[in-house]
C-alpha cells in the first residue's frame, strides 16, 4: 500500500528537484570529494565542463552560496543576499535574532500560538537580558469563540498596548494551522509608535502560502525541510532592515557568542560570503545547501503556483471534513479568515483519546496514512497542494471510520 503523506509538522515530503540534488551530491561525494573547496561554494559550477554537468545534472543550478541566498532574499522581498543567514538549525537563528531584539527592547509580545521550543529560546534570552515576555492567551478564543482575523489582530494589539510592549514575536502560521494576519497586525503595531522589533516565525508558511510582496518583519525565521520540501533541515533568517543584519553579524563575530550560538554551517556560510574562511575550521555538512537550492528554484513554488496550491489545499481541507463527517472525528477549525492548508481533527471516542500519540500514529500508518498525532485523540493533517483523487478520499474515510 502506498503511503498518503499528510504531515509537515517536522518533515515535508522531498520534492523531485531536492531528491535529484541529494542523489547527485551523494554520487559526487563518492566520485570526487575534492569538490569540497571554497571555489565551489563561491562560484558554483559555472566553470564545470558540459560533460561533468551532464554527469551531475542537479548541480546545473548551483551557482554558489551567495546566489542561493539571493534566491531566498527575493522570496521574502529582502534587498540583498547580505540580509540572509543560513544555519544547520533554525533554533540557533531564533536565538541570535532574540539576542538582537533584546539589545533595544524591554518587553516582547508573544502568544500561546507560538511554537513552544522557539518560545522557550526567546524566554531564555529575555531572562539573560533581564527583560520581559508577555504571552497573549488567544488559542481558546480562536478555536472556541471563532475570532476573525480582524478580531485576533485587535486582541493582540490591545495586549501589546496594555502591557507596554515594544517588540513582537509571532508566527505567520502557527503549528495548529492558524494564519495570523501578520501583515495587518505589524502595520497596526507600528502605528502605535512603540514597535521597535518584529520577529516572525515563518516555518509553517514558507512555500505553504504565497510570500509577502514587502518585508514583514525585522527578522523572519523559517526552514527548508517542511513546505519547501527540501528534505534536509536548513534554517533561514531573513532581515527586513540592513541595520538588523549588521547587528546579527556583529553578534556572530564576537567571541562571547561562540559558546552558545555555535552553528558550523552558519559560521561557514558567513565566512564564504566574506572570503575569510578559517583554514582550521571543522568540516561542515553542506548537503542541505544543494537540496534547498534545487527546491527553491522549482517552478512549483513560484507566486502563481503557490496561489493555486493554497486554493487547492483549502479545497482538500473541505474534502477531509466531508469525508469524516459520519465518523467520531470532528474538525477543530478556526474562523474562515484564519484557515490554512492545515486542519486539526479530534476524536470523540474515549478509547482513542486514551491512546498516546505514538500508538495513534501507528494506527493511521497501518491504514497507509502519515499525519501528526497528539495526545487526547488529536491529529493534524497537512493537505497536499494537488486535489485528492477519489481513492485517496476513500482511504481517508475508511481510516477515520476504523480508528474510532
Topology:
Layout: E1 4-5, H1 16-31, H2 38-43, H3 50-55, H4 65-75, E2 84-87, H5 90-101, E3 107-111, H6 116-129, E4 132-136, H7 139-144, H8 149-162, E5 167-171, H9 182-191, E6 197-201, E7 219-223, E8 235-239, H10 242-253, H11 264-273, H12 287-296, H13 303-323, E9 329-332, E10 342-347, H14 350-353, H15 357-366, E11 369-370, E12 372-374, E13 378-382, H16 390-402
Parallel strand pairs: 1-11, 3-4, 3-5, 5-6, 6-7
Antiparallel strand pairs: 2-8, 7-8, 9-10, 10-13, 12-13
Give a verbal description of the structure.
The chain is α/β, with parallel strands linked by helices and 404 residues long. The chain has two domains: 65-300, 3-Layer(aba) Sandwich (Aspartate Aminotransferase, domain 2), CATH 3.40.640.10; 302-402, Aspartate Aminotransferase, domain 1 (Alpha-Beta Complex). It is 43% helix and 14% strand. The chain has 16 helices and 13 strands. The chain has helices at 16-31, 38-43, 50-55, 65-75, 90-101, 116-129, 139-144, 149-162, 182-191, 242-253, 264-273, 287-296, 303-323, 350-353, 357-366, 390-402; strands at 4-5, 84-87, 107-111, 132-136, 167-171, 197-201, 219-223, 235-239, 329-332, 342-347, 369-370, 372-374, 378-382. The chain has a seven-stranded mixed β-sheet, sandwiched between helices. A four-stranded antiparallel β-sheet has the order 9-10-13-12. A two-stranded parallel sheet has the order 1-11. Helix 8 packs parallel to helix 9 (182-191). The longest helix has 21 residues, at 303-323. The radius of gyration is 22 Å and the shape is globular. The model has no long low-confidence stretch (mean pLDDT 92).
